[in-house]
């Protein structure tokens, strides 16, 4: 009889877990929707910015701008955008693997890493990498101010000549079921980012101030947008990954409960059968 | 009568998309008025008040840092931050103004510049709030 009771206890514990994963799935689904809305909300600004930059790039002499200057050297900084929390399937593992592979290809003595999100920080710190910047426990409320702060820091380092190239690694949000880890070059700004369509700008604008001066004020904003986008994508991807992982966990718990229930019923039946046999054989012995 | 399409977007959201009769905004070289049929113009946006006229009535927004694109009777404002007058919390703006003023006494360098920007933003927000229902001049 005690075996059946043990199994019953296990079923209860699995049920509790299932309730938890189910709740987490619901929460992630709601958060995912909000994150997606924010990604959409950020799009008009980014698109408009890109359009204007392209039309400016053909008018100004973009090579002059320090943010576009290629430096000869291999001092690389990698920004790793990961999650702050676990329980989101392979989300953190994937991005950290991608980032580690990338890091392994760089000159180790000159590589610095900045972490946005706690998981990446733990990972690289444990492996003894040189961590320069950290923004931890921020994924919960990512806003433009955060992106601005990070990009300010990065641009300063780049312009001061402390680093030759800056890359950012993040999970790209493809759909609710797919996330794609990518490593993207942030600085110097890749000039093909600015290459407009061949037919040229459709409007002949009056520029106030000059195109070159406008270009100069807009480029840093472009960097901010790139980082903001990376953060938003990563947040959406994290919620999507967590939702999928928790959905799978809920299903697994359901299956486990089913099989445990079956085992428990069998055990109970076996116990009853044994009891009956005992009773019957006792009665026979008396008769 | 010809009208203008006014769109105000920030990286966080679209603040406004309206058909309006006139827009007044803080450009690089000072405030400028935009009427339907304006020549294509690209200018950077200073921190200040954006006013637009709709049905004979002026409405206001606070905006800071960004640029404005005017073309084909469309006015696209890309601002780093922007709020409609109705959304602004004047207590908060006042506090932020007081705080910035106080902190500026002991600040220097980058920090001072940061505070200066914050002060200008707070002042712009308060100005916008006080203009509700009034003419911009």
Class derived from helix and strand content of chain B = alpha+beta
Beta strand % of chain B:
over 45%
Oligomer: heterodimer
> Which word captures the global form of chain B?
globular
Determine the number of helices of chain B (DSSP H or I, runs of at least 4 residues): 2
Could you give the count of β-strands of chain B? 8
Determine and state the CATH class of the largest domain in chain A.
Alpha Beta
Radius of gyration of chain B: 15 Å
Proportion of residues in helical segments of chain B? 25-40%
The topology string of helices and strands of chain A comes to: HEHEHEHEEEH
Largest interface: A-B, 28 and 24 residues
Look at the structure and give the CATH class of the largest domain in chain B: Mainly Beta
N-to-C terminal Cα separation of chain A, in Å? 28 Å
Query: In the CATH scheme, what's the topology name of the largest domain in chain A?
Result: Pyruvate Kinase, Chain: A, domain 1
Low-confidence stretches of chain B: none
- The Rg value of chain A, from CA coordinates, equals 28 Å
Task: Give the number of domains of chain A.
Answer: 2
CATH homology superfamily of the largest domain in chain B: F0F1 ATP synthase delta/epsilon subunit, N-terminal
> Roughly what is the average pLDDT of chain A, rounded to an integer?
88
CATH domain fold name of the largest domain in chain B: ATP Synthase, domain 1
* Coarse morphology of chain A: elongated
Question: How would you explain this protein's 3D organization?
Answer:
Chain A contains 5 helices and 6 strands. Chain A has 287 residues and is of the alpha/beta class. In chain A, helix 1 (2-57) runs antiparallel to helix 5 and helix 4 (144-159) crosses helix 5 (211-286). Chain B folds into 2 domains: 4-86, F0F1 ATP synthase delta/epsilon subunit, N-terminal (ATP Synthase, domain 1, Sandwich); 89-131. In chain B, a hairpin with a 2-residue loop joins strand 6 (48-54) and strand 7 (57-71). Chain B has 137 residues and is α+β, with helices and mostly antiparallel strands. The mean pLDDT of chain B is 87. In chain B, strands 1, 2, 3, 4, 5, 6, 7 and 8 form an 8-stranded mixed beta sheet that branches. In chain B, helix 1 packs antiparallel against helix 2 (109-131).
């Amino acid at each position: 009889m005690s075996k059946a009771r043990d199994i019953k206890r296990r079923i209860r514990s699995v049920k509790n877990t299932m309730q938890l994963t189910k709740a987490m799935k619901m929460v992630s689904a709601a958060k995912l929707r909000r994150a997606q809305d924010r990604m959409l909300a950020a799009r008009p600004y980014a698109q408009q910015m890109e359009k204007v930059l392209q039309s400016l790039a053909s008018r100004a002499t973009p090579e002059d701008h320090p943010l576009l200057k290629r430096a000869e050297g291999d001092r690389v900084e990698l920004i790793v955008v990961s999650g702050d929390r676990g329980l989101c399937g392979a989300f953190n593992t994937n991005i950290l693997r991608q980032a580690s592979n990338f890091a392994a290809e760089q000159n180790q003595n000159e590589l610095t890493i900045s972490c946005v999100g706690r998981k990446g920080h733990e990972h690289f710190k444990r492996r003894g990498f040189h961590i320069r910047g950290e923004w931890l426990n921020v994924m919960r409320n990512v806003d433009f101010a955060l992106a601005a702060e990070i990009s300010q820091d990065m641009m300063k380092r780049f312009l001061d000549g402390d680093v030759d190239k800056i890359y950012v690694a993040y999970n790209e949000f493809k759909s609710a079921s797919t996330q794609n880890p990518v490593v993207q070059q942030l600085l110097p700004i890749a000039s093909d980012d600015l290459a407009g369509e061949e037919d040229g700008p459709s409007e002949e604008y009056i520029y106030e101030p000059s195109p070159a001066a406008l270009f100069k004020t807009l480029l840093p904003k472009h960097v901010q947008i790139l980082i903001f986008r990376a953060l938003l994508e990563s947040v959406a991807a994290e919620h999507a990954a967590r939702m999928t992982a928790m959905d799978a966990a809920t299903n697994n718990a359901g299956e486990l409960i089913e099989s445990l229930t079956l085992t428990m019923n069998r055990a109970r039946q076996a116990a009853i059968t044994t009891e009956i046999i005992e009773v019957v054989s006792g009665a026979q012995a008396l008769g | 009568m010809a009208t203008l399409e006014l769109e105000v977007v920030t990286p966080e959201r679209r603040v406004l998309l309206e058909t309006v009769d006139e827009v007044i905004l803080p450009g690089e070289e000072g405030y400028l008025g935009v009427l339907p049929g304006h020549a294509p113009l690209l200018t950077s946006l200073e921190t200040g008040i954006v006013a637009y006229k709709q049905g004979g009535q002026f409405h206001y927004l606070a905006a800071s840092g960004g640029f404005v694109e005017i073309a084909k009777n469309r006015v696209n404002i890309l601002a780093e931050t922007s709020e409609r007058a109705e959304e602004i919390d004047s207590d908060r703006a006042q506090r932020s103004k007081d705080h910035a003023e106080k902190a500026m006494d002991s600040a220097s360098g980058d920090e001072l510049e940061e505070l200066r920007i914050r002060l200008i933003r707070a002042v712009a927000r308060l100005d916008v709030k006080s203009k509700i229902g009034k003419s911009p001049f």
